[in-house]
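Same chain as my last thread, 194 residues:
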Amino acid sequence: MNSVTASELAWHMHNHAVALDHEWVTPNALFYAWESDLLTVTKNGLVCEVEIKCSRADLLNDLKKPKHAQGMLMNGSFMAKDPAKNRTPNQSREDLRRNSGMQVCRRPNYFSFAMPCVIYRKLPAGKLPQYAGVYTIDAEGRVFEERAPIQLHTERIGTSDLLGLAKRMHQRYWNELRKERHGGSRPIALDPAV
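reply #2:
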């Protein structure tokens, strides 16, 4: 699996999640203050985020992101970002939550990395955060749980959050269809409250 693509890894992780009876599997989800490569939701309403990594460099760069470097995943701390820099709609949603008195940022119940076996085998010991699970995918597309993720919190995703996620997915679908048919015309505006 030398030239595996992110979409191939995501497909294998999708199949793995479905085999585990996860009821919701969303690629490139815009739900937290960051984009998630894959979000799944269990029957019990627990959210699992999977970051898809095709190279060692991509994996090491991901570890520098605020969700890891600032403790957002582990501790639920809100993102510290220069106020002069533009914020994404997801980051603005989290700012609204913080300003309304929320003490922790939204984050998944579980976080994992998925990568080809060869990348995982070449990583130095202790390079990945302790909370992160690790899934590897071999040349036949089989998924192996190398390390189980730890549970970051117990709060379950609510129906309104699932509906908001579904709305954003539908808007993205229609924007992609519009681009395909009309050559990049203006996208549908995303409601910051969703």
